[in-house]
Amino acid sequence: MLLERIYDEDLAQASYFIGCQAKGEAIVIDARRDISEYLELAARHGMRITAVAETHIHADYLSGTRELAAAANAEAYVSGEGGEDWQYGFDATRLTHGDTITLGNITLEARHTPGHTPEHLVFLVTDGAFSTEPGYLISGDFVFAGDLGRPDLLDEAAGGVDTRFAGAQQLFTSLKEQFLTLPDHVLVYPGHGSGSACGKALGALPATTVGYERSNAWWSKHLADDDEQGFIGELLDGQPDAHAYFGRMKRENRDGPAVLGPLSPLEALTSDQVRSALEEDRAIFVDTRANDQVKQGTVLGALNIPAGGKFASFGAWAYDPETETKPLILLADGQDQAHVMRDHLMRVGIDAVKGYTISLADLPPTQPATITPAELADFEPALLLDVRNKSEHTEGHVPGSKQLSAGRVLWHQDELPTSGPIVTYCQSGVRNSVAASALRRAGHDVRELIGSYAGWSDWNTSD
Question: Which GO terms describe its biological process (predicted)?
Answer without folding.
Answer: glutathione metabolic process; hydrogen sulfide metabolic process
